[in-house]
Fold:
Amino acid sequence: MPGSEFGQLQSDGTRLPPFYSPRPDARGTSHDDGDVEHGDFSLSAGNPASSNAEDDDGASQNTIPPASTPLTRPPPASLLSPAFTPPSTPGTATPSNAGAAVPRGIPVDSSIPTGGCGTKQPRLLETLPEVECIVRARIPTTTGAEMFLHLYTNNVDNKEHLAIVFGGTIRSKSLDAVRDGETEMDRLVRGAYTGRLYPGRTTSGLSANTSESQDALSANLTGEDSIQGPPLVRIHSECYTGETVWSARCDCGEQLDEGARLMSLPNNKAGGIIIYLRQEGRGIGLGEKLKAYNLQDLGSDTVEANLLLRHPADARSYGLATAMLRDLDQKEIRLLTNNPDKIRAVEGPHREIVVKERVAMVPLSWKGRGGFRAPEVEGYLKTKIEKMGHMLDMASLPR
Ligand SMILES: Nc1nc2c(ncn2[C@@H]2O[C@H](COP(=O)(O)OP(=O)(O)OP(=O)(O)O)[C@@H](O)[C@H]2O)c(=O)[nH]1
Structure:
């Protein structure tokens, strides 16, 4: 960690990296999450992506996955644990937002060129990958927000892709499916239960006589817990540097935290899902991304650095995200992104998922809500806008 100019001084005297979550508003005013997209975005249908980026993006969407691994086979012992250990957990500085509105989205219709996600059509594989949620657990976070972490296996790679689920109404079909020969304890341990776990619980379903089931019943009757519209979704690609080792070259850590914060807002009754895909460095892997960083220090931008290393500008695909969202029983979503390619790609080859709205991700520092400023992240965002067609208006960057 760099020196003392970095980090927020906490009440217990320790310093936390300031990079991820919004700092509390120094003026003590409450934030209004309803203004997320106020004038900050252009919805131009014209896509300013360079020809390089266009060619490479198109190619990347068509990446053929490696040979299938049957879902029935147990995951290999070599499965790596996620490096997802953000130093600041979701929702820091949320208390002042307790009553804040759910962020407004911009209507999207990817079936028409003027629908708000550019004109590029990614070439997608005809069939979605198969995914299976093998375990789910409740994660109370340090801010009081709670989420359920779902770990998925699939038939195209050996990575542990994750769904971070906010709200109690979103469930995984593959997790809930009954497995041959399993006991009630097996179901409890792999997270295929309803309601909450407590010491001594022996059944995975809600039994009619517990006070918990009565609470659930009355919540449903009063509509307190009923689903209200499509959930907020973020499709997030792994970024070890930005999420774990405090890199100021990108805003990935801040985006992850901000997505989680918005999904945890009490007024967000529709729930939220962060699909956390293990495609580090836009799919080129951490080693190659570190080489790209060195090329950036030598004068290349993020797209040029990838191309110099003979990688596409963006080597990611989103079929796994589409399949995971379908497994979580979603059809329509509100997507937190500035990336037009992501909107079309996550919808899948047959629009298995429909993005109804895009919710813009404006860097927090641009809105005067904390965040961080650095020449590197400004270069990163500028390249996204100028070469990759991201729907973010650099002109609104405060000088
Ligand atoms: N190759 C490369 N990858 C980077 C660099 N900086 C960040 N990344 C990766 O870029 C990806 C960021 O992706 P996302 O957070 O999904 O964001 P996005 O696709 O840019 O679009 P949004 O949804 O608008 O945030 C992660 O996989 C990061 O590891 C870089 O300099 N070079």
Observations:
- The chain has eleven helices and ten strands.
- The beta strands are 8-9, 15-16, 106-107, 131-140, 146-154, 161-166, 232-237, 272-277, 332-336, 354-359.
- The pocket of guanosine-5'-triphosphate is lined by residues 236-239, 249-250, 252, 255, 279-282, 284, 289, 292, 302, 306, 337-339, 342, 361, 380, 384, 390 (CB under 6 Å).
